[in-house]
Design brief:
Number of strands: 0
Order of helices and strands: HHHH
Low-confidence stretches: none
Largest sheet: none
Strand content: under 5%
Number of helices: 4
Length: 99
């Protein structure tokens, strides 16, 4: 794998390298090889991954054919708006209990 450094911009070259490694699955492979995995655990993991891939492929195919409707994720509100509302406190004061 090769990454070109242009104009001595090492940060950008490092970003490109990380993206390439991510696409190749190197980071995932390193995480899996960090500890020993029993062969039986490996086969079950690979089987579940294959099932997940097949379900995802079938779901995408059904969406393309129009059999199911694609669900959209809700958009998250901007973080600053949430923080401002949180800092302001409740809109109505808490009821007071007199004894």
């Amino acid at each position: 794998m090769q990454v070109l450094v242009r104009d001595n911009n090492v940060d950008q070259a490092l970003r490109v390298l990380k993206k390439k490694l991510q696409r190749e699955g190197i980071f995932r492979e390193m995480r899996l090889r960090r500890f020993y995995e029993k062969p039986s655990a490996r086969t079950t993991r690979e089987r579940t991954e294959a099932i997940r891939r097949a379900r995802k492929l079938a779901r995408k195919q059904a969406i393309r054919e129009g059999l199911i409707v694609a669900t959209r994720k809700k958009r998250a509100e901007p973080a600053k708006a949430n923080q401002a509302a949180f800092r302001a406190g409740p809109s109505t004061p808490a009821p007071r209990h007199e004894t």
